[in-house]
Amino acid sequence: MDRLTVLSIRQGQFVYDGERGLPVAWTWTLERPGGAPVLTHTVRLDRIPGGRQALADLRRLPQRIRELRARNPGDLDGFEDELRRAGEWLGGKGLGRLTKELTDVGEVAMRLPPELAEFEALPWELAPVRRESEAPESSGVPLALHGTTLVRGVRASPRGLTGAVAGRRLRVLALFSLAEGTLPLDLTAHRDALRAAVLAGTAGWEVAAHVRTLQFGVGPTALGETVGEDGDWDVVHIVCHGLPGGLLLERDQAEGGEGEGRRLDVDSTSFVGAGEIGRLLAAARGRLKLLCLTACWSGGEDPARSAGRPLTSLAARLADELDCAVVAMRFPVGNDFAVRFDAALYQGLLGKGWPLPAALRYALRTAADDPDLPERALPLLSACTPVLFGTDAPYLTFTKESSSIGPLDAPGPRMAGPLPDPPEPFVAREQEMSAARAATSPSGASRGAVLHGAAGLGSTSCAAVLAHRCQQEVSPVLWHPRPEWAPPVHDGGTAAGRPPSHPHSVDGFLAHLAHRLPACEDTLDMAREEDWPAPVEAAVGCLAGRPDLLLVLDGADRLLCQDPRWHPLLDALAGTADAPRILLTSRTELPGIAPSLLRVPLGPLPPARLLPLLTAAAPRLRALLDGNDELAWCAYDIAAGNPGLLVEADRAAIRRQDLRNWVRIHGGD
C-alpha cells in the first residue's frame, strides 16, 4: 500500500471529448495512508453552467499568461486575477469537496490515464482553501502554499529506489547556457550559488558530492557530449531560457576557417525540442535520478505552439523517457527567484535529507517569501510555477550513505598557483566566452584563443573566469601573469641579442614552468643557458602530450613588447598538435602571432548588459544616473560601454569635484 496520498482517475471513470481533447465527466478517487476511508467525487460538466468552455479556457491559461506578459509585463494584478479565477474554478468545480481533503497532506501522487495528460497538467495546486482563522471574504490560500505538492506522471508502482546508491559518490552535472539575443541572466551568480549549495549540503557526508559545472558554449553538441562523457550522473541540472516544448541553448560553434587571424564565428540561438533533449540526455538514463530544468515553460506548454497536437510538456516527456524525477517551471520566473529556489532545493534535498517533494515545498516557500524578490508580489503565480514529475519523485531522497569511496583522481597536477580572483561582479559576455571556451577545449578544433580589446573591456577578467572554470572541472591550468608596462626591447631578441632576463621574459617563463613541472626542471634550467632555439624546443618538449593543460598568458602584447622571443615560442606551441591549449589576453589582435589561435574581440557592452554592472559595481554612478544627473550622464557617455571606465567614474563620484575632473580628463575638454 502507498505511504502517501494518491489522487487518481481510473480507466472507465471518465468520459472523453476527443474534439476538445478534455474530459466532460470524471470521478476522482482519493486514497490516503493510515487506513483513512477512500473518498470519491464525480464531476459532470453538463451540470455546470459554462463548464465545458471554462475547462477549455483553462487549457489556454499559459497562452493567456504569455499575452498578458507581452502586453503589460508590469500588470501584476492582472496576472494574479487570471490565476485566481482559474484556481477558484479548479477548486470549486474541478476538485469539489476533495479540495479541503488535500490540504496539508504533503506529497500527493496524481495517477491519471495517458489520455488525460493535458487534464493532469492543469494547475490544480491553485485550488484555494480558506483556513478557519481567515475572514469569510478571504479567497483562501492555494494548495501549493498549504503544504501540498502534487506529483504528476506517477504511472506505476514505485520501485522503492532512493537517490542514494551504495558504494558510489553523488555525482551532479550542472549546465548553464545563455543564447545570444535572449534576455540577460546572471549565470555566473547562479552557477556559484548552486555549486555552493550542493557542496554545503553534502559536506557532512562520508564523501562530498562530485559537482561538475559547464558554462559558456553549452549548445546541443556540448550538452550531449558532457552527459555522455560518463553517462553516470545522479543529478543533471540545466539553467537556460526556455519556450513551451523546448529549451533555448547556445548554438554550436561554427567551424572557423584556416589561416591567419581566424575570427569569432558564432551563430545565435538554438531551439532544442523535447525529442532532441531526450536524445541528448539518453546516456544518463539508468543512473539518473533527478533532472532539474530551471527554464521558463519547461513544465507547461502553450496551445499556441502545439499546432493542434496534444499538449505534453518538456518535463513530462523527459520524466517518461528518462525514467527519473523532473523539477520544472510551468511559467517564466526571474533569475533571482531561480537562484534562490535552486539553492534552497538542494539545501533541503541534500543538507536536510528531505524527500524531493518536501524539499520543493521548502524551496518554493523560501523563494516566494523573499522580500527582495519581485515574485513576492505574485504569490499565486509563484505557487503554481514549480512542478514535479516522475514515478519515483514522491519517494526520492538522497542520504549520507551514498558513498564509501574516496575522492576522484585529478588528471595530472593542478599547476595554476595563485589564479587572479574571479571578478565581482562579472558581466558575462556569453558569445565571446563561448567562443574562447570552445577554442581552449581539448576537443576543440582550434589551438586556443586571443581575447583582445581596449583597456577596461575585461580581457583579463574573462580569462580569469575561464581559468577558474577549468580548475573546477579538474583540468590543470598554468597562469602566467601580466607584466607591468615597460619600454620595448629593440635588440632582436635572438641568440645574438638576448634581452636581459626578467620575470616576464621567455627565461622567466621557463623558470615558472620548471617550478610547476618539477619533472622538467633540469631540462628547462639547462635550456635557459643555451642559445636560441634551445629554450623553445625544451618548452615544447616538456609541454608535449598535455592537451588537457590550459596555458594562460595575460598581457601577451606586453610580453611580446618586452621580449620578442615570445613570438617564435608562441608559434611553436600553437603549432604543436598535442601541446597545451593557449589563451592569450591582449590590447591588440596580435597580427602575425600564432595564426592558428582564434581571435575573439571584446567590444563595448550594450546598455542592457551595463545595468547589472552599474548596480553591483558602480552604485554611486547608478544613483546619479537614476536622478538624471547631467554630469553623471556625461561620464556614462564618455565611458561608451567600457566597464573599466564606468568603475573608474564611480570611484570619482565620491566627490563632485573628482567626478568633474574625471569627465574633463577623459572627455578631452
Percentage beta strand = 15-25%
Structural class determined from secondary elements = alpha/beta
Please compute the radius of gyration using only Cα atoms: 29 Å
Q: Uncertain spans, ≥5 residues at pLDDT below 50?
A: 254-267, 402-416, 492-497
Count all strands and give the number.
22
- Summed up, the helix count is 25
Biggest sheet, in brief? 12 strands, mixed
Q: What's the end-to-end separation, in Å? A: 82 Å
What spatial form do the alpha-carbon principal axes imply?
elongated
Helix content: 25-40%
Mean pLDDT score, rounded?
81
Description of the structure:
This protein has 25 helices and 22 strands. Strands 1, 2, 3, 4, 5, 8, 9, 10, 11, 15, 16 and 17 form a twelve-stranded mixed sheet that branches. A five-stranded parallel sheet has the order 19-20-21-18-22, with helices on both faces. The radius of gyration is 29 Å and the shape is elongated.
In short:
With 669 residues, the protein is an alpha/beta fold. It has 25 helices and 22 strands.
Features:
twelve-stranded mixed sheet; 22 strands; alpha/beta; elongated; five-stranded parallel sheet; 669 residues; 38% helix
